[in-house]
Automatic annotation (TrEMBL):
<protein>
    <submittedName>
        <fullName>Uncharacterized protein</fullName>
    </submittedName>
</protein>
<dbReference type="InterPro" id="IPR017946">
    <property type="entry name" value="PLC-like_Pdiesterase_TIM-brl"/>
</dbReference>
<dbReference type="GO" id="GO:0008081">
    <property type="term" value="F:phosphoric diester hydrolase activity"/>
</dbReference>
<keyword id="KW-0732">Signal</keyword>
<dbReference type="InterPro" id="IPR051057">
    <property type="entry name" value="PI-PLC_domain"/>
</dbReference>
<feature type="signal peptide">
    <location>
        <begin position="1"/>
        <end position="19"/>
    </location>
</feature>
<dbReference type="GO" id="GO:0006629">
    <property type="term" value="P:lipid metabolic process"/>
</dbReference>
Amino acid sequence: MNQRLNTLVLPFVVSSCLSATIDDLPLNRYGMIMAHDAASGYLDPSGVIKGEVVDWTKTQSMPTKSAADLLDCGARSFDWRPYVKEGKLNAHHGDIEIEHEFEDSLDEIVNWCKANPSEMVIMHLWDCGSDGSGDCNALVQGVLDGRNLKAVNDCNALVNVTVGEAKALGAMEGGGILLPILPTLGDDGQGCSVANYDESIACWGGRNPFVGRGGEGGQQLDLILDCVERGGVELGKAYKGLREEERAKVEECRGKYPSDEEEGVLKARLKALFTYSCWDDSSTKETPLKQMTNYMDKVSKAGPGDAPFYQMQALWEESTASVVVGELHFSSLVEDEEKSKLNALTRDYIDSGRFPNINYIEVNNVCDGGVELKKSLDAFNENNVNTL
C-alpha cells in the first residue's frame, strides 16, 4: 500500500519542483530597462563641447560619472556605441565624441556586476566607429579579451535562448553576470536587437523649417502656412487652442492652395506644424503623449519576432524640428524626460497591464524613476512566468 502511495505522490512532487522560473523565460520575453546611448551620461556641458550640443546629445545623468550609476538606477542593459579617435577607444553619440575611455567604463560595469552577482547585465556594443586610426571592433574585442569576458559575436547564437542560458553565457570568473554583445554576424539591428526606431515621436512639435523642400505636397503646405501667417495666425500656438476665426483662416488658406495629398494626411501634417510640448504642465501634451502611446501599443502588440531582442523606445526622439523648438524653450533630452514624467508614465502603463509583450524598455534619464520602473518590470516578468 505504501509503495503504491509513493508511486502516486512522487510524480506530483517532481512536477511541483519543476515549475517554471524566470530563468525559463525566452530572452526576448524578459522585461529589462535599456539605457539609451548610455555613454552620453559622461558628457559635461562645462567641457569643450558647447552646452546646446550637450543638451541634445546627452541622454543620461550619472551622479558620480560612472556607468555603475545607471545600474544603481535600474538599468540592466546598455546601448553602447564605441568610437576610436587618434588610437584611443572611447564612445560617441552620432557625431559627438564622448571622452571617457572604454576600458574604464567596462571596469565600472564589471565591478558593479561582481558586487551584485545575482543581476544579469547585457551590453550591446554596436555602431562601432573610427576616425581611421584603429579598427573599432578589434579594439573592443581586445579590451573584452583582456578581462576574460566572452562576447557574443553571432546574433544567431542568441535566437531562442532563455534567461537562464543567457546568464550562463555571461557568467564571469569570480562571480557576476555580464553578457557583452559585439555582433559581426547576423546583425541587422542594434547589437542583435530590433530598434523599432521612430524619429517622429518627439516631445516638441512646431513649424519645420525644412518643409517645402521635398515635393509638391510640402510646397503646398508651405504656401498654406505663409497664407495663415499673413492672415495673422501665429504658428507658435497649439492648433487646438486656435480661436474659431483663426481656424477659419486656416481652412480658407487650405482652399486657396489645394494639394494632391490625401485630405487626412495634409490635415494631420498641418496640425503638427503648430507648436506642442510633452511637458506635464503643458496644455498641448496630449498630442505627443498620444503619439507615444500609439507607438508603444504597436510595438507591444507585435511582440517578439525572430530576433534575440527588441526595443520599445520609451523616450523622446530628437529630430531637426523638435530640437529647434526645444532649444527655443531652453530644454534638453534629459529635461524633456523629467518634465514630461515619461519614465513614471511608462511604469504606470506597465502596472495597468496595458502591454501584453515587453522586452527592452529603452529610456532616457534612467536615474529619474528607474528603480520604480524596474520593480514594475520585475512584477511583469513574474506574471509572465505563469504563462509558460
